[in-house]
Amino acid sequence: AGARARRGGRAACAAGSGAMVPDMAKRNTMNALMWGSIAVAAAPMAGAFASFFVPKGSGGAGGAIAAKDALGNDVTAAGWLATHKPGERELTQGLKGDPTYLVVTSDGKIENYGINSICTHLGCVVPWNVAENKFKCPCHGSQYDATGKVVRGPAPLSLALCHAEVGDGDVVQYSPWTETDFRTGLAPWWK
Fold first, then answer.
1. Neighbour tally for 34: CB within 10 Å
2. Nearest to residue 176, comparing CAs of 61, 56, 55?
């Protein structure tokens, strides 16, 4: 009975020992400092994460740039038509450095538009499949017709277009496509 009383006495003594208990104002101040520190660290991370989902702007002043071949040389209409048959599509460097198909028409001229080869699903480069006469993405199977219009998903949109014109010095020039997409009748999504 005496041991039990001693233990109980210690418990009573510890509970009433007058240990410092912080008041509510100090607790609120410490909580505000903690959450403020977390917010200061998390805000830039959240901003960087959110910016990943915002597409890049078109950049540039909207002027024409020369199409480049695989070696970085300007593409000339005469040189291109001398080495490419009607109906051929081959990659060149287009606007913003994107790989862009330059198309030779059935009558042996350069088509008035170029087709950006970046898949609208996840950004793979879409090759031209000569045997099937369409673009087929090797990553997830999206398919586009000869003009770049999406015909099978999972790609949600058609391939982007740009104007292709023969400029000074017979150099093929690309410029942004800002008018209605002739394939869909809608405003261009890539503006």
1. 10
2. 61
Both tokens of 182, joined, read: 């002739």
pLDDT band at 70 (very low <50, low <70, confident <90, very high): confident
Q: Which two tokens stand for residue 16?
A: 């009433």
Alpha-carbon distance of 180 to 168, in angstroms, equals: 26
On whether the pTM is more than 0.85, the answer is no
Question: Cα separation of 190 and 64, whole Å?
Answer: 16
Quick one: pLDDT at residue 18?
Answer: 60
The residue-averaged pLDDT of 185-191 equals: 88
Place of tokens 């039990």: 4
State how far the Cα of 98 lies from the Cα of 118, in Å rounded to an integer. Answer: 8
The DSSP result for 99-150, as a single string, is EEEEEE-TTSSEEEEEEE-B-TTT-PBPPEETTTTEEE-TTT--EE-TTS-E
Contacts of 116 (CB under 8 A, 6+ apart): 94, 95, 98, 99, 100, 101, 148, 159, 160, 161, 162, 190
| Token digits of residue 135 | 């673009």
Two structure tokens written together for 65: 């740039």
